[in-house]
Structure formats: C-alpha cells, structure tokens
UniProtKB/TrEMBL annotation:
Top-level taxonomic group: Bacteria
Pfam family, one: Metallophos
Keywords: Membrane, Transmembrane, Transmembrane helix
InterPro entries xref list: Calcineurin-like_PHP (IPR004843), Metallo-depent_PP-like (IPR029052), Metallophosphoesterase_sf (IPR051158)
UniProt-recorded name of the protein: Metallophosphoesterase
Species this chain originates from: Polycladomyces zharkentensis
Amino acid sequence: MWGLIITVFLVLYGVMCYYIGRKGWNTLGKSASCFNRTLYLVVFFLLVLPFPVAELGEDVLPASIAPWFIIWGGYSMVAVLYVFLLLLTIDLLRLIDKWVNFVPAVIKEHPKTPLTLGVVVVILVLGTVAYGGWNARNSVITEYHVTVDKDAGPLQQLQIAMISDIHYGPIIDTERLNRLIEMIHEIKPDIVVLAGDITDGSLPQREARKLAEVLAQIQVPYGTFAVPGNHDRDLRDDNSALMRYLKEARIHVLKDNYVSVRDSFYLIGRDDPNRHSVPARMELKDLIKGIDSSKPLILLDHQPVDLKEAEANGIDLQLSGHTHSGQIFPANLITGLVYELDWGLLKKGTYHLIVSSGYGTWGPPLRIGNQPEVVSIKMTFQ
C-alpha cells in the first residue's frame, strides 16, 4: 500500500516538474543565450531531482550523504509544490482575464512582465521555504486547561506535559531532543506522556541507546509513559533494543495496557491502529474491564480516531498526535477533512480530546501553516 502511495505521489511530482520546466523554458529559456539556457537547466534539475533521488535511493546512498539528500530533497520537493501552485494560479488568473479583462494592458503587454513574475515567484518560494525550515526548529509550548467532574482522591490538579511525533532519526537528532527536555522542565509537569511516533522508523542499537539516554533526563513525580505510533517499529517488539533501553530509562510503554497512578487516576495506552500484527489492537471496552470508572480516565492513543468509542466508554481526556496539523500547507486542508479534530481541543459532554501538531517533522524538515509544540495541560478535578 505504501509503495502505491509513493508511486502515485512521484507521478504527480513528475507532472508538476514537467509543468514548471515547460513554463520556465518558454518564458526564460527559449530566447536566452546559450549560457543562460544552460544555467536554467542546471538550476531546474537541482530543484527537481534531489527528492526522487533521496526517495528512490535511500537504501543505496552512502550513510554519510543519505541524510543530506533527504533534507535537500525535502526542501526542494516543497519548493516544487509552491512553484507549481503559484504558476498554476497565474495561469488561472490569465484565463479569467480573457473573460473579464481585469488586468491592465500596460502589465500584460510589458515585455518584462514574464521575467518579473518569475522573479516574484522565486522570491516568494525561497522566503516561504526558508521560513518553514526556521519554524520547524522553533517549538512553542501550547497550554490547555481541562476540568473533570471526578474525584481524584487527594489530587486536585494534575500538570501534564504531552509530546507527540518526535520522529527521532536522521533529521531530529539529540540536539533537538535537548531543547525538548528544556521545554519539559519549563512546564514543571507531574507526568509526561509521549503520544507516539517517538522514532522515524527502526533505529540502530547505538541510536536507540542515545535516544533513551536523553529521555532518561525527564524526571517527574508520576513518571513518563509512552504509546506506539505508526512509525515506531522498534516498539512493536517487546525484546527490541529500544524497548530494553526505554525500560532502563524508566519510560513505561503502554500497548493496550493501563496503569493506576497513585490511586488517583488511570492512564490507558492503546496500541497503534495501523499495526497489523497478531494480536490485533484491543477494543477499548475490553481493555478497560476492571477499571474503576469513577476515577479520572486519561487515554493515550497516537491517532485521533475512534472518538465515539472513547466517549461512550467514559474517557475523560484523550491525548493524540499523528496529524502534524498538516505540517505543510495545504496538507492541513486534507487532515481537516480526514479527522474530526486535527489540532487543538475538542469537548463533547464530559469527554475531552487534545490533538498535538507534534514536536518533530516527517519527510520535509519544514513546517508551514502550523507550529511544532510541546503541550502543557492543567487538569483540574472537582
């Protein structure tokens, strides 16, 4: 299935590249000098080739250069997308102008208009991509306040730090994780939860150890808990090196399991719904059998799905990630259609859902139209 998605995307990418290349050649290349035509072709291929090379050659590129190709390919892919959208918009405006005639003749007939438009497109795209790279590296703390009408014993308030979608790997390294630890300490939480996609895939043993050593710096009164995400391949195997190192770091991974925390509330962790191994993900009603539902119930589920099931089973607060809030505009328009909530807080009766845009990035190391975040939740019990 994933191979089919990649194939379709590469075909669409090829169509965008052809459209950009033809428009650019007709505007800038045909009448230019031999040197300028050569320069145009070099710049064009440096723009469009890195992404497919990184995508198709990830397993054969030398380890020393593969991460650089992934980063370069991510930047160039987004640049291609925005150049395509801007050129398409210009062509649509030209088409509308044929009917409505709203563009002044002095602009349409000026010989330098095509070049000027090209320069404007390049400046807009470069500025947007540069901003996206900066934005992806500058996380914020997003605060929520949730009130639950349940007795938590002596506990009247609970301060939660929630982090999702770190995607530790070639792009998100230990330097970025050190900033994450600082932000968690700024929140001063009672409990820390990692809502899936801690990694960007399987990790070599050395990297698994480095990740666990950084996460071990999280020292909070009620502990640190995690659930698997769709990218957390090493969390599917209880005997993996990462699971062993996380256990040593006192990071508790909940896969279709729950814990009673200080006899005040329950923390319930679901396995990721994309997991196709046996046994399959448990039904929530079966998972919470034996739980005292008069106490607050907090559910960790990587993807913001099965909301009606959570609401029907008395969940007070569900914490999810996965969506990245689209990560790169206009993908947020798609996630907004796919999920009932792709970012923020949703309240239905006594049920609350908080979806994080995530801390890291997947694919292009850019964020445009949203911000990476660490979520701070003050939960009050009545």
